Amino acid sequence: TSPLVIAIDGPSGSGKSSVSKAVARSLGLSYLDTGAMYRAATWWCLHSGIELTDATAVADAVRAMPLVMGVDPAAPTVTVGGTDIGEAIRETSISASVSAVATNLDVRAELGRLQRAAIEEAGHADSFSQGRGIVAEGRDITTVVAPDADVRVLLTASEEARLARRSLEVHGDADAASVEATRDQVLRRDADDSTVVQFHVAADGVVTVDSSDLDFDQTVQAVLDVVAAR
Ligand code: C5P
């Protein structure tokens, strides 16, 4: 049997990461968080003292980044030169700067190349998934990185639902003040990202799963149903 490639895109707060991990676990597949790779690139540039406005320096730094992505969906890891940066890349300073790095087209070319290599690797018998395949999630996986994936899903949710989820994640609360604090950050990042990647409308052949009125388990099931129906 040939490896299964599942591509999942969506805006921030759509639940992409948790849903993708659960789908990968349930099917015994590898899991690749491509947003974590853009976050790692941002961490690496800041850590190396590079001005994010210097596009050439940023691209050079990212090409030299010793990044290793751990693809076990039960415990995904991100290491750069042996340093575990899984937590550091979730800090607000990274979230606030990541779009500046992700809109660099040379960075996108380099990370896209690494992402295709990881997808290819998951088809090998000696890989984590033993050749069963991978769930790769991000903003441009269904369209640019793996347009010929076996299953392509756009995971969406209403703005209200996305803000409430992110607020819970970041502030541990979804009261009015916390949602308001999240709003600017989330919407600005999506707006900045939208200048180079399109992830609000499903491309041809991509199945939309709207999770606004679904709980977590129902959303995972909806994606598994798309996989089963392929
Ligand atoms: O998914 P997450 O919110 O962690 O992604 C962080 C950032 O990485 C996004 O805001 C976007 O700038 C970038 N990204 C991207 N293309 C992807 C995945 C993420 O540009 N495929």
From TrEMBL:
Record's catalysed reaction(s): dCMP + ATP = dCDP + ADP; CMP + ATP = CDP + ADP
Subcellular location: Cytoplasm
Database matches in CDD domains: CMPK
EC number: 2.7.4.25
Enzyme class per UniProt: transferase
Keyword list, A-Z: ATP-binding, Cytoplasm, Kinase, Nucleotide-binding, Transferase
Family annotation (SUPFAM superfamilies): P-loop containing nucleoside triphosphate hydrolases
Positions of ATP binding: G10, P11, S12, G13, S14, G15, K16, S17, S18
Coiled-coil features, chain-numbered ranges: none
Cellular component, GO annotation: cytoplasm
Pfam family, one: Cytidylate_kin
Molecular function per GO: ATP binding; CMP kinase activity; dCMP kinase activity
InterPro entries: Cytidylate_kin, Cytidylate_kinase_dom, P-loop_NTPase
Residues annotated as domain Cytidylate kinase: 6-227
Any Gene Ontology biological process: pyrimidine nucleotide metabolic process
HAMAP family: Cytidyl_kinase_type1
Family of this protein: Belongs to the cytidylate kinase family. Type 1 subfamily.
Protein name in UniProt: Cytidylate kinase
Gene that produces this protein: cmk
